[in-house]
Design goal:
mainly alpha; 2 helices; cytoplasm; DEUP1 protein
Length: about 170
């Protein structure tokens, strides 16, 4: 994109230089026109040089026609230059807008990532706490199960003693 901008700037500079040359030619032609007019005045006095005056007049008309064409070309180049400048401006604005949008999006994504990291840390804390609680409950249940098994064993022993005593009686 930078290359396009540089190319457009180079083209603008080239057209500006052409415009300056055209203006210099116009000034030179105007100077020549003044000289030709002076020359025409002298030719009115000198009849012998009348044919030269006609040629100079034709040249002047040709130069005037060229000047008109150059002026039209210059106007067209100005319009093109303005179009290029406007296009360049719009492209720069679009580029800036896109950069701002991307910065905002990156900022939003960074904030979202930060929130997710906080959420993950909170979940990990809770998971760790739940794991400790489960281990404690498991230990308690293991103890209760051991007591239950011990009680069941004692019950069976007592029951077997009772059965044995009943048989003896």
């Amino acid at each position: 994109m930078e290359a396009d901008f540089s190319e457009m700037r180079d083209e603008l500079q080239s057209r500006d230089a052409l415009w300056r040359r055209i203006q210099q030619e116009c000034q030179q032609l105007h100077a020549k026109l003044l000289k030709i007019r002076e020359y025409e005045d002298m030719q009115e006095i000198q009849i012998k040089r009348q044919s030269s005056c006609v040629q100079l007049t034709e040249q002047l008309e040709n130069k005037n026609a060229e000047l008109l064409l150059l002026a039209q070309s210059q106007e067209h180049q100005r319009e093109e230059l303005n179009k290029i400048r406007n296009h360049l401006y719009r492209e720069e604005q679009s580029h800036r807008s896109e950069q701002e949008r991307m910065k905002t999006e990156i900022s939003d994504l960074t904030e979202e990532l930060h929130q997710k990291e906080i959420t993950i840390a909170t979940i990990m804390e809770k998971a760790s706490l739940l794991e400790r609680q489960l281990k404690m409950e498991l230990e308690i249940k293991d103890k209760l199960l051991a007591k239950q098994q011990l009680l069941d064993f004692r019950y069976k022993v007592i029951q077997s003693e009772n059965t044995h005593l009943k048989e003896m009686v």
